[in-house]
Design brief:
Layout: H1 2-5, E1 11-14, E2 20-23, E3 26-28, E4 32-35, E5 58-61, E6 67-69, E7 74-76, E8 79-82, E9 99-103, E10 109-111, E11 114-116, E12 120-125, E13 131-133, E14 136-138, E15 141-146, E16 153-155, E17 158-159, H2 162-169, E18 185-195, E19 199-202, E20 205-207, E21 209-218, E22 221-222, E23 225-229, E24 240-245, E25 255-258
Parallel strand pairs: 1-4, 2-5, 3-6, 4-7, 5-8, 6-9, 7-10, 8-11, 9-12, 10-13, 11-14, 12-15, 13-16, 14-17, 15-18, 16-19, 17-20, 18-21, 19-22, 20-23, 21-24, 23-25
Amino acid sequence: AALNSVGATGGDVLLHKTSRLSVGNLTIPAGVRLLGQIAGNDITSDNITFTFNTLGSTLLTTAGTTITLEDGASIERVLLTPSAIGAVAQSTTASFAGTAITIAGYGARVENCTILGYAQAVTSNGYSRLTICNNTVDCQAAFDIQGSFDTTRILNNHCWPFLTHGAFWNSGVDYASRDKTKLYRTGIGLKLTNGSDDTRIDGNLFYGFLEGMELQNVSAVNMGSNWIDHPNGVNRASNIGARFRNNVSDTIAQTLMIYGV
């Protein structure tokens, strides 16, 4: 109701730090910002019982639903997680499902959010001038951006196995004997396809994904400095650091660090 009440004129809707709300499909109208109050994205996950929902400003999405951003809408400093997971540390990724955020408008922004436990964190198809910055992500796949032009920014995102790292780290055996599949994610960290025009990709970490980054049929991309990593001592079939395919042109990768693949 609060989102709809400011939808006609635009403005901010504050999600209180102590809020922990269960939601279904939720649309943030054009020009509206849903602003949470999580303290930040520097979260610790070595404890197998860690509950991320203590960070506050949490939306628990029900199965099969998504948060949709219209033109110029934004979501900032909010923790998103499926209600089936509840932002509690997991021993496996078996419950990861659904899409957290669906961008359905130009100039939409996802900033300083913590997105945990989905099959896909953010998806967009056909929208430009996007800002996806400073987010903390643990999903099977992070960002799937299709058909985006005109200065989209994907900057300083930390994509890492936050939910299952505690189960890996506290397994009671030496590193070489630990189950490194707990650190695997089955999808792509960043998939950028069919567009781009001065798109900037910089300062991101993509850890544990089957494929760190994929650029396909894009041009005029400035990749800056990005890091792709994977558990040490693992021979994982079909693992790819970065892939450039089907007509990638006028693209600069200043520093692309790829480890463990």
